[in-house]
Amino acid sequence: MDFSLTQEQQQLRKTVRAFAEGEIAPHVMEWDEASHFPIEIMPQLGEMGLLGVIFPEQYGGAGLGYIEYAIAVEELSRVDGSVGIIVAAHNSLCSNHIYKFGTEAQKKKYLTPLAQGKRIGAWSLTEPEAGSDAGGTRTTARRDGDHYILNGSKTFTTNGHYADFCVAMAVTDKSKGSHGISAFIIEKGTPGFRPGKKENKLGLRASDTSEIIFTDCRVPAENLLGAEGEGFTGSLAILDGGRISIAALGLGMAQGALDAALSYAKQRKQFGKAISEFQAIQFKLADMATEVEASRLLVYHAAWLADQKTVRFGKESSMAKLFAGEVAVRVANECVQIHGGYGFIKDYPAEKYYRDVKLCTIGEGTSEIQRMVIARQLLGKK
Ligand SMILES: Cc1cc2nc3c(=O)[nH]c(=O)nc-3n(C[C@H](O)[C@H](O)[C@H](O)COP(=O)(O)OP(=O)(O)OC[C@H]3O[C@@H](n4cnc5c(N)ncnc54)[C@H](O)[C@@H]3O)c2cc1C
């Protein structure tokens, strides 16, 4: 058993941290307040390989694994969770669905520019009436000659307004239930395909979360992703990997909140001494650091399992996502508490972590759904 990161992995952490602190940190509050999608940093993220971390070089990717991916998402999210979720949805949802289920031609045409960072990806499973119960998808795709005609609407799609390519799930055969749902790649500009309402959110406000609307949208049959009827089961496999990135998002934000709390506790003086001298504050910091470290072990273990490519890792990725998400919420809460009144004020980073972390107990399956996934596997149920 070896818990150490390789020299290359340590270097990657340093590089991403320096980028996040240098290029993202100065703009975090401005982007948050304006709900500004940081389109200007996308080329740099692409050049650093962060928009194609887990894909082979032959498809324009960085040729790295889930450990490196977790490092990248953790370090970006330590500074701004919005950038973390943008990178996560692009890599492990949209691009990975094409990598895992796409034909060679689809990988060349769509995955390569996504992995190179020349195009932005989105992934649409959730619908207004089908969230946790995504098998209840209502968007339809009717075959018409060498096209499918899509109708319906998706909700909460990360990167929705900015995506050049969207992978979306739609019902091709209602009689087959969740086995009648298929995946499609839709290009921006396809008539009948458009982003709808951009959500005004509690947190992660610089990320874009949008409706996606299909109105008699004609998609070439060659854009069917995987076999007909494989879209829902495929999505569950994609979410196994995606949950590692949401766990890393939570881990990064929890680490950021811990760092902010530590720094504030050392400089804030009350009763003639730094508040870090009070045992009540020390115990909070100790608990926060312990929980963050436990999250890190679960996240990197799940990432390591995913990199083995021979073992199933769905239970472990759900455990990492469940634990790291809940820890992020607790740690951000204590970060505000340690800041006292200043934790409530936008001049300090505490309130933003407090708002942003909540997504981690909701996105890519709520904490309740993670517990169901874990329990099902413990009990040997499908
Ligand atoms: C910022 C953001 C970004 C997102 N990005 C994407 C994206 O890119 N692509 C995408 O497809 N989706 C995305 N989502 C959607 C997200 O995955 C869903 O919000 C999530 O799966 C929950 O679905 P829901 O919101 O419909 O809640 P619901 O399913 O309505 O759940 C409501 C509550 O009921 C509980 N619940 C539901 N079923 C059960 C059950 N069987 N047992 C116990 N409790 C249950 C839930 O845990 C929750 O507490 C995003 C969401 C947000 C907020």
Q: Report Rg.
A: 21 Å
Helix content: 40-55%
Find the structural class using helix and strand composition: alpha+beta
The helix/strand order is HHHHHHEEEEEEEEHEEHHHH
Strand content: 15-25%
Model regions low in confidence, pLDDT < 50 over at least 5 residues = none
Widest sheet: strand ordering = 1-4-5-8
Describe this structure in words.
With 382 residues, this protein is α+β, with helices and mostly antiparallel strands. The chain contains eleven helices and ten strands. A four-stranded mixed beta sheet has the order 1-4-5-8. A four-stranded antiparallel beta sheet has the order 2-3-7-6, with helices on one face. Strands 9-10 form a two-stranded antiparallel ribbon. Strand 9 (269-270) and strand 10 (273-274) form a beta hairpin. The model has no long low-confidence stretch (mean pLDDT 98). Bound molecules: flavin-adenine dinucleotide (FAD). Flavin-adenine dinucleotide (FAD) binds at residues 89, 123-126, 131-132, 156-158, 204, 209, 359, 362-366, 368-369. Flavin-adenine dinucleotide binds at residues 89, 123-126, 131-132, 156-158, 204, 209, 359, 362-366, 368-369.
Helices, strands, pairings?
Elements: H1 7-24, H2 28-34, H3 42-47, H4 66-79, H5 81-101, H6 104-115, E1 121-124, E2 140-144, E3 147-158, E4 165-171, E5 181-187, E6 193-198, E7 209-220, E8 224-225, H7 231-267, E9 269-270, E10 273-274, H8 279-308, H9 314-339, H10 350-356, H11 367-378
The structure holds flavin-adenine dinucleotide.
Flavin-adenine dinucleotide binds at residues 89, 123-126, 131-132, 156-158, 204, 209, 359, 362-366, 368-369.
